[in-house]
Amino acid sequence: MSRRGPAVLSLRRDATGRFLPWLIALMVFLSTLAVAAAQMLSGWAQRWDSGLDGSLTIQVSPVGDKAPVSLDERVQLVLHALGGVPGIINARPVSMEDAARLVEPWLGNGALLQDLPLPALIDVTAGPAVDVGALRQRLATAVPGTTVEEPGVWLRDLRRLARLVEAVALVIVALISGAAVAVVVFAAKAGLAMHQDEVDLLHVMGATDSHVADQFQRHVLRLSLKGGIGGGAVALATIALLSLLSRTVEGTLLPPLTLAPPQWLVLVGVPVAAAALAAISARLTVLRALERLP
User: Fold this and answer.
1) Burial 9-42 (b: 16+ CB within 10 A, else e)
2) Which residues are bridge partners to 123 per DSSP?
3) Where does the record place the ABC3 transporter permease C-terminal domain (predicted)?
4) Mapping DSSP to helix (H, G, I), strand (E, B) and coil, where does residue 45 land?
5) Quick check: pTM over 0.85?
6) Can you tell me the distance from the alpha carbon of 81 to that of 24, in angstroms, rounded to the nearest whole number?
């Protein structure tokens, strides 16, 4: 046949039409959640890189009543010592109200928090030339009871963990895609076996293998889009609900579960990609099976 003929195979009545959309819907749902998790972790890692890289936190511990200087005076001494350190871009004392707010999720805002001798905090922006070890020693000598915390130390471990979980999420997507291909291959082979007599008749009438494969491809594409759109819609609704709930949770160290508009577009494309993968897999499976026929 020189042109594509009408779809003469009764594929709509196959048993594959009953379970394939549900399987595709489940796989698209899981894949969409995994892709969303990978994108969120990637966004968090980039946010941590830009927000904490090059920052230092100096803690000035409180002293007893018999100390020669007050806590505020000790903070001023630390700021004066920082003024002579090359590479210090900015040093800003953190108010006691803000410091108390940092520990409020764990200690509450009752009398315990008011009676607790909180250290004074100084937020420092440092350049790459600053020697943190030498800075610690300098401040400990100038103002005893002063410690320097470098977020970059634990930030590297946090980034490594985020990248690991992101890689695991992508591996999960790959495994789900492989399982989806296996399901489609099985469904295509089963459908071809059920319609073997019709396929033989089409060949006798002059139909090509490509014409037969086209019909299976369109059939699987229709079922995959039906299941993929349903599974993707449920996944997007779940992610939107989790994002909304994360905005109402207070006292958490993790940022809200938010996605940028381009990331939402990637999630919308998951059902389309799944349907295209299923259709291509069905076509290649049928063509390969037909080539092996005598």
Assistant:
1) bebeebebbeebbebbbbbbbbbbbbbbbbbbbe
2) 57, 92
3) 171-288
4) helix
5) no
6) 64
